[in-house]
Every structure is written in structure tokens, then in C-alpha cells.
Amino acid sequence: MTLYLTNSLGGRKEAFIPQNPEEVRMYVCGPTVYNYAHIGNARPAVVFDVLSRTLRRHFPRLTYARNLTDVDDKINAAARVEGLPIGVVTERYTEAYHADMAALGVRPPTIEPKVTEHIPEIIALIQRLIAERYAYQAEAHVLYHVPSCKDYGMLSRRSPEDMIAGARVEVAPFKKHPADFVLWKPSTTEQPGWDSPWGSGRPGWHIECSAMIERHLGSSIDIHGGGQDLIFPHHENEIAQGTRARYWIHNGFVTVEGRKMSKSLGNVLLVRDLLEEAPGEAIRYALLSAHYRQPLDWSADGLRQAHRSLDRLYGILRSLADVAVNDDVSPYSDNFHLALDDDLNTPAALAELFRLARMAQQETSPPIRSKLKMSLLWAGEQLGLLQQKPEEWFRQSAGVLDGADVDDIETLVAQRSEARAVRAFDEADRLREKIEALGVILEDKQERTEWRRASS
């Protein structure tokens, strides 16, 4: 099977061919740690987590770097508002980001470089750009001179003039050209700063990733990824600085109920708040319900639907509890892999997940049923789904019901089973009504009683 990805550099779907088939090298722009992660931050983390799993299926080794930006004017502002040292702010939100992404089933990258740990590499790269006449010093700043890059605009496929007209460009009298961007800027005594040939200062945003890529992955990498909003100016400027990637992969924007997410609209949805409404796996499912390149419109109904979908899948797995599996991945999962290999078509992959579940549920041959269950679990693992035991899922799932305590529900279910066993049917009916009043549906099987949320 061949993996195909849409390369933003050219805008075409291409067969993915790494420079070295023994090791794929991928870099994804991570968060600026000045606040809690919102659902827009979560989408690239989940998308590239799925891509990393797909790459590991195809190739023996993946080196995946995702950075943390821990020096930035937004961080400075947050620290000033809270009256805290900058390091305290970045450490707090780094830990929160890790916890939130772990709750969504996002595996840690191979490497997680921090900007503050790569200042010497950043200074060295800036010195090289000055020596090669791509950059110049002006009033304690160092700027990249955009006209010096003949191919500027190759990623966004727009001319510098069009990009300037469509973007807010920082005006400064010392710029040689309006589109020139900052590589190094001076710091005041209240701001973080490092000694450099141009005085005490700190790096600009764009130079950071180029320096960290070169340090950890080399002069040319296979994949550079991030959100669509990074195409211009961030990734365009990285290319100008010398970053070389064979494939540039970008996920689409996240809107909320049809509107752009913004503080002014009060619709910025934090991951940690959404985790109070639904399990992390349901949030992950919702993020994968649209193709990664397309916009994703987040809604409460969509999250509920994702939750119900997982309830159905885990319910089928629960019905297959007595079916043994082995490590043999059967050909029943081939269509699932074809869907992911076709530019990470997660909606089609999710549909295949349900097809496998239905087949496993309906199959009567024990050997085939075993292979179908294994295929379902394997496919789920590729998406980062269905990795819990069904009992754990339903306990977690029920935990978000208003007024319903999981232990109380299970106690009532056990009492009702005892009443049925001694043919005390009036008592069993009374207990059923009490259980259902808690927002729970009972399903009497041949040997046991199973329960789930009424919204399932």
C-alpha cells in the first residue's frame, strides 16, 4: 500500500516518498505556552498524531519533533498580568498542554524542543543569513530582507505585494521593505533577553522553528506540518530562512457553531472545559469526523454524536468479550488502511470502523469473528480509539451524567439482577424504573445485564 498526502507546496495529492525509507523525519509547529489549549490547538495535535501512527505502519522509524514556544510577547503579557516570572507561566501551561493532549490520546512526539534551549543555534542561523546577505541589522534589530528571496511566496502561491496587501504588516522606519520580518529584537530589562552580537535581545517567531529543525532533524526533512493559518507568514518565512521540507501538510480551521473562534465572541472552547462535558476519546472522535484539510465546525451536537458513536462501538466490543484474538492482523482491515492511506481520510476510516464492528457482531464463525475483532481493535488503535476496556469506557461515559453516580448505578443493576434471579419481578421492575430515571438504559442479555447512557 502507498501513502498519499496533499502537499501544500503545489496543492496536489502526491505519493509520499521519504528521503530515507529507513527513517521519516517530521516537524510540526506546537503551541505557544501562554494559556490553556483550545479546541483549535487540539486539532493539529490529533491530526498529526494519526499521521505519525500511519507513518509508523509504513516505515520502520519515525523521528517526530513538535516544538514548544516558550518565549513570546504573549507570554510576557500573561506573566505581567499575573505578576509571575515568565518561567512559572510557561511551565504551568506546558504541563496543562501535556495533560490535555494525553486526555485526547495524543502520544508524545519523539523530540519536544523548547525555544529557550536553542538560543545559540538561533543566533548562529541569523549570523549565517546576514553573511549570505539575506538579513541585515538595523537599530538593534535583525531583519530578513524579503526581496532577497526570489522564491518568496512559493508556498502560499501569492506574490509578496498581494501578501502585504492582505495582511497587517508591522510598520517600522528601519525596514528596507515593508514585508521584511524580524529575526532578532532588543529586550528591555523586564523582558527575557540573551546576549548576542546585536545586543541583549530575543528571537523573532519565525527563526525559532528553522533553527530547531536544523538542530534536530537536519537541513532537509520529509514533512513539515501545522495549521492552515501558519502557511503565511510563518511557514513562508521558514522557507525563506532555509527550511526545506519535501511535503508541507496543513489542517483546516476550526469554527464554533459556524463562527470563527475569538475572545470577543466568547466562543473560545478550552480542551479542559470540554473534558468536563465528555471523555477525551469522544473529543478526539469529533476532531477526526471531518477530513483534516477541510474546515471543522465544532458543535455541542457533534460532540454528543461522537459520544454516541463510541458508545455503539464499545457496546459491540462488549458483546464480543468472550471472543479471543491474536496478533494476526487479517485482511479485513485492508479497506480501513486504504482510507487512511488516501490522504488521511478519517471520515472514511471511521465508516470502515463501523463496518468491521457490524461484521464482527453478525459473524457466527468463531475463527472469522476472532479476526474481525482483532481487525476492529487494530483499526481503532490506528485512530487512537477503542483502546479501553468496554467496562472502563462505560464507567467513564456514565460519569458525565448529571446526578448519576457510577457505583450507585452498578449497585442498583446488581440488586435488580438478584431480584430477577429469585423471580421477584415486581421489585425488579421497581429497580428498573429507578435506574432509568437516572438516564440509563438497561439491556438484558442471556447471562448478564448491561447498561448505557440513555443518549446512546
Tell me what you see in this structure.
The chain has 456 residues and is an alpha/beta fold. It folds into 3 domains: 253 residues, HUPs (Rossmann fold), CATH 3.40.50.620; 115 residues, Isoleucyl-tRNA Synthetase, Domain 1 (Orthogonal Bundle); 53 residues, no CATH class. 45% of the residues lie in helices and 15% in strands. It contains 16 helices and 15 strands. The strands form 5 sheets. The chain has a 4-stranded parallel sheet with strand order 4-3-9-10, sandwiched between helices. Strands 5-6-7-8 form a 4-stranded antiparallel sheet. A 3-stranded mixed sheet has the order 12-11-13. Strand 11 and strand 12 form a beta hairpin. The radius of gyration is 26 Å and the shape is elongated.
Strand content: 15-25%
Helix and strand content put the structural class at alpha/beta
How much is the radius of gyration in Å?
26 Å
Mean pLDDT: 92
The CATH C-level class name of the largest domain:
Alpha Beta
Describe the structure concisely.
The chain is α/β, with parallel strands linked by helices and 456 residues long. The chain has 16 helices and 15 strands. It has a 4-stranded parallel β-sheet, sandwiched between helices. It has a 4-stranded antiparallel β-sheet with strand order 5-6-7-8. A 3-stranded mixed β-sheet has the order 12-11-13.
